């Protein structure tokens, strides 16, 4: 059975009239071997979940000074965008004048208090440590197209600067840890993305509702019969080379969809509530379900990509941004509860990325594209309850303000990425292979994990 090709295995199973229940048995034995015959095993199970906040999150307003000169400078900088009613938090590393969460992040306050949530402050795209004077004199090695949405999204997903690089660090981690990693190790709930694109590996795309490729077979009639007929047609010998290639491609896609759909039939019913009107929460609910069947899928490492848009708040920020943060915090809190319910909280780490931070100063109704910001890291293995890096100064005209409240990062995003990669199982040499800019920084890994 080990020698069966994916095509032969699917053809024999489906042409023999087997339904999904019977296919499940095959999947657990022969199919998993056929799909991963060359895969190198890794020890234990770990998953990284990337939550991408498209548009450039005003993450400076996620952390609000509570008193003193810090609060005065914050209010002067943020003007009508200044947040009131901040929720006090007590980081392990004390913050002068105190610090609090934006009120919309209330669901995350208990996770910070129980040390499951950490924040990375003043983080952004950097090639080397950079000063305000170097920027003003034109001597700084700046990221290319620093304030461009598309370019900076790609920079965060690539983990290095070359604009021509068509691979992301999520997929590269999997390819370094395993030879021919399983397709189910790299799943996107938010469309095609560079972060999960490797030399050979591509993200397996699905929706929060399930495998979209099978929705056409969920109507009236025998689903097994419909699938059998479709697969028979796709697997039939073709007379033209291009037709044969198309058939092989479609049969592989159908096989993968069947494997995921069948595994999900074995997922336990979660007691954790995910808000039905919160798209990010629904994406993360599906991620939790997929994690619950990782043993069935036979994967030791997984990377998931989810996302939400709307963070390009040039206008109406005081209305739009709190609503976005409310959705984000509720979704993350539900996901954290689900991983605890499944008993995998220590094996799953969730983190945020975004295009860039935003300007501290208001444009009258919102903010413009900035640079440094704050990011979240959440999970049972996280050494939470603290703020890592140098706290982002919310003070106009400071040594970190390069103009208009665009703040120079004090922690490079690759330092955050390398810390996540280290927990995921990559060696120092492997991390430096993916993130070559690490050599410019004294601390290549932050003490984020227990």
Portion in helices: 25-40%
Please summarize the sheet with the most strands: 9 strands, mixed
CATH topology of the largest domain: Alkaline Phosphatase, subunit A
Query: What is the average per-residue confidence, as pLDDT, rounded to a whole number?
Result: 88
Shape: globular
What is the gyration radius calculated from CA atoms?
Answer: 23 Å
N/C terminus separation: 43 Å
Q: Low-confidence parts, pLDDT < 50 over ≥5 residues? A: 1-38, 215-221
- Per CATH, the class of the largest domain reads Alpha Beta
CATH architecture of the largest domain: 3-Layer(aba) Sandwich
Topology as a string of helices (H) and strands (E): HHEEHEEHEHHHEEHHHHEHEEEEHH
- Number of continuous helical runs: 14
Q: How many domains comprise the coordinates?
A: 2
Helix/strand/pairing class, anyone? alpha/beta
Approximately what portion of the residues adopt beta-strand conformation?
A: 5-15%
Counting DSSP E segments of at least 2 residues, the number of strands comes to 12
């Amino acid at each position: 059975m080990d020698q069966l090709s994916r095509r032969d295995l699917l053809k024999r199973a489906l042409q023999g009239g087997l339904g999904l229940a019977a296919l499940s048995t095959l999947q657990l034995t022969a199919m998993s071997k056929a799909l991963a015959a060359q895969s190198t095993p890794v020890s234990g199970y770990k998953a990284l979940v990337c939550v991408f906040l498209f548009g450039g999150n005003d993450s400076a307003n996620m952390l609000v000074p509570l008193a003193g000169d810090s609060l005065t400078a914050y209010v002067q900088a943020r003007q009508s965008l200044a947040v009131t009613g901040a929720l006090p938090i007590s980081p392990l590393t004390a913050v002068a004048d105190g610090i609090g969460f934006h009120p919309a992040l209330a669901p995350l306050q208990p996770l910070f208090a129980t040390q499951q949530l950490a924040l990375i402050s003043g983080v952004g795209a950097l090639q080397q440590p950079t000063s305000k004077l170097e920027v003003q004199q034109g001597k700084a090695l700046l990221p290319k197209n620093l304030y461009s949405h598309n370019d900076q999204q790609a920079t965060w997903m690539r983990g290095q600067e070359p604009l021509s690089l068509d691979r992301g660090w999520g997929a590269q981690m999997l390819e370094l840890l395993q030879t021919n990693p399983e397709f189910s190790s790299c799943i996107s709930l938010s469309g095609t993305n560079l972060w999960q694109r490797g030399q050979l590996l591509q993200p397996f795309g699905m929706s929060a509702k399930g495998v979209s490729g099978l929705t056409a077979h969920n109507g009236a009639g025998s689903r097994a019969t419909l699938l059998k007929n479709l697969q028979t047609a796709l697997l039939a010998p073709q007379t033209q080379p291009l037709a044969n290639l198309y058939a092989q491609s479609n049969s592989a896609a159908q096989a993968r969809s069947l494997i995921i759909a069948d595994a999900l039939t074995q997922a336990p019913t979660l007691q954790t509530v995910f808000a039905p009107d919160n798209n990010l929460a629904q994406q993360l609910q599906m991620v939790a379900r997929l994690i619950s069947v990782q043993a069935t899928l036979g994967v030791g490492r997984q990377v998931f990509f989810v996302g939400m848009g709307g963070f390009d708040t040039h206008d109406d920020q005081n209305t739009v941004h709190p609503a976005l943060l409310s959705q984000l915090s509720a979704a993350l809190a539900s996901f954290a509860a689900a991983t605890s319910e499944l008993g995998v909280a220590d094996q799953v780490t969730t983190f945020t990325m975004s295009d860039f931070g935003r300007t501290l100063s208001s444009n009258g109704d919102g903010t413009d594209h900035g640079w440094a910001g704050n990011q979240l890291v959440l999970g049972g293995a996280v050494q939470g309850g603290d703020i890592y890096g140098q706290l982002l100064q919310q003070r106009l005209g400071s040594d970190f303000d390069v103009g208009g409240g665009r703040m120079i990062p004090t922690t490079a995003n690759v330092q955050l990425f390398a810390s996540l990669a280290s927990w995921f199982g990559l060696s120092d040499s492997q991390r430096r292979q993916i993130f070559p800019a690490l050599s410019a920084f004294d601390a290549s890994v932050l003490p984020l994990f227990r």
